[in-house]
Amino acid sequence: LLEGQHLEQFGESKNIVYEIKGKKLFRNVFLLKLNKKEELEEETSMSFTLKNILERKPGRTASKPLSLINYRDVYLLPIRREAGKTLTTYLSTGANPEPYLTRIVEGLAAMHALVPRDLTPKEEVGGQLLPKRENVKNYLAAKLPPIQLDPELKKIILDHYTPLSKSLENALYVNNRDSHTDNWYITETGIVVALDCENTRLVPQTHDLALLLNFSTHFTERQKDAYLEKYIKEFNTINKEKITDPTIFKLEYYNSMLH
């Protein structure tokens, strides 16, 4: 079916996603994601985990991958796509974000609470295999421009980053959902869909909220505060480990914005 079709990159994700040009039926049915075989297999498994979690409440689900395709020695994962638009596109129309944002925020809380951390890919730390975890302390050093900085200036920059990194190092770490508004989809029937089901690492709990509420400029500070409260309420309803101090949680959220 793919033979003779033109694959065109779709969107600007760091991982390449194609749509098929030339067959309108295909364009309306699925996208094709390119990655390493083992990572696509992990994503497929995670997508079913997320689907089961999200569908505990109506009106939300996760993307639906099909079987892996080995096409000209490249692995592609077909992902079913229903008619609709990304949350970014939806917000750009000026439409009211409700009730979709509440479903998304509560769904994010459910995924953070219920995805087992042991499902995260492992790395060796001190002779032990542990779930991969974002190294907040080294993050800024890795992101500094690839030029020869004066060592004293570099030290000053990193020293000023220390309070922020310490705040986030003490946060609860959860499975990363990369939850910006391009990774949520609203179907024509009003279902919200989590698009990115990759399984990469653990991150501070507030990282996904910072991405979701600040990736675009469509939310007021009052709206952001309201969604943070909804997240806290939903997370505490589901998870044994509670958010006991909303003030500290919001501080971690603002530090995630800066991070």
Distance between the termini: 44 Å
**Radius of gyration, taken over Cα atoms and rounded to an integer in Å:** 20 Å
Total number of helices: 9
Shape: globular
**Residues in helix, %:** 40-55%
Number of E strands: 14
Spans where pLDDT lies below 50 across 5 or more residues: none
| Chain-averaged pLDDT | 86
In brief, what are we looking at here?
It is built from nine helices and 14 strands.
Characterise this structure.
With 259 residues, this protein is α+β, with helices and mostly antiparallel strands. The strands form four sheets. Strands 1, 2, 3, 5, 6 and 7 form a six-stranded antiparallel β-sheet that branches. Strands 4-13-12-8 form a four-stranded mixed β-sheet.
What are the salient characteristics of this protein?
alpha+beta; 6-stranded antiparallel beta sheet; 9 helices; 14 strands; globular
Topology diagram in text:
Elements: E1 6-9, E2 17-21, H1 24-27, E3 30-34, H2 37-54, E4 60-62, E5 64-65, E6 69-71, E7 74-80, E8 84-86, H3 87-92, H4 100-114, E9 122-125, E10 128-131, H5 136-143, H6 151-169, E11 173-175, E12 184-187, E13 192-194, E14 202-204, H7 207-214, H8 221-238, H9 246-258
Parallel strand pairs: 4-13
Antiparallel strand pairs: 1-2, 2-3, 3-7, 5-7, 6-7, 8-12, 9-10, 11-14, 12-13
Helix pairs in contact: 4-8, 5-6, 6-9, 7-9
